[in-house]
Write a structure and sequence with these properties.
single chain; 148 residues; mainly alpha; Rossmann fold; 2 domains; three-stranded parallel beta sheet; two-stranded parallel ribbon; 5 strands; 43% helix; 10% strand; elongated; Peripla_BP/Lac1_sug-bd_dom; LacI family transcriptional regulator; Peripla_BP_I; DNA-binding transcription factor activity
Length: 148
């Protein structure tokens, strides 16, 4: 059978391909499932593929990039549904943790968040939109800021 291992890492590291390749070999993994923003890094995908590492990417895309196995996520719709659910629970102040402007998924998620607020007659409170990047530390800091 198969199991799942999660490997926190710095997605912007120039040594990420080496780190992941070493982890795959050391842990004797069958392959990798990459999420954003790593799944959006062409250089990383090419480096891992060149080393013979099997991978599947979870990406926000409207078209199949035809460069390997992918699972497509509609980030806009997902963010809309999450925001809508919070509104329907009665929440009035809903924050958004921005994952970085260079990542397609961030813009898609923000568009869904914004659309849900608009559809329910609410406006975006810029104080509740926290800029960051797709890192654990930024997510932690952003959540603390929103909950303060």
């Amino acid at each position: 059978g198969f199991g799942l291992q999660i490997h926190p890492c710095d997605s912007s590291s120039p040594l990420l391909a080496d780190e992941l390749a070493d982890w795959v070999q050391r842990s004797r993994l069958a392959g990798l499932v990459l999420t954003a923003p790593m799944s959006e890094r062409r250089d990383l995908i090419q480096a891992l593929t060149a080393r013979g590492i099997k991978l599947v990417r979870i990406i926000a895309a409207t078209e199949d990039p035809a460069d390997g196995a992918c699972v497509f996520v509609d980030d806009r719709e997902a963010a809309y549904e999450i925001t809508e659910h919070l509104i329907q629970l009665g929440h009035q102040r809903i924050g958004f943790l921005w994952g970085g402007s260079s990542h397609r998924s961030s813009g898609e998620r923000y568009a869904g968040y914004e659309a849900a607020l608009k559809d329910y007659g609410m406006t975006v409170d810029k104080h509740l939109v926290v800029q960051g990047d797709y890192t654990f530390d930024d997510g932690f800091r952003g959540a603390r800021r929103l909950l303060a």
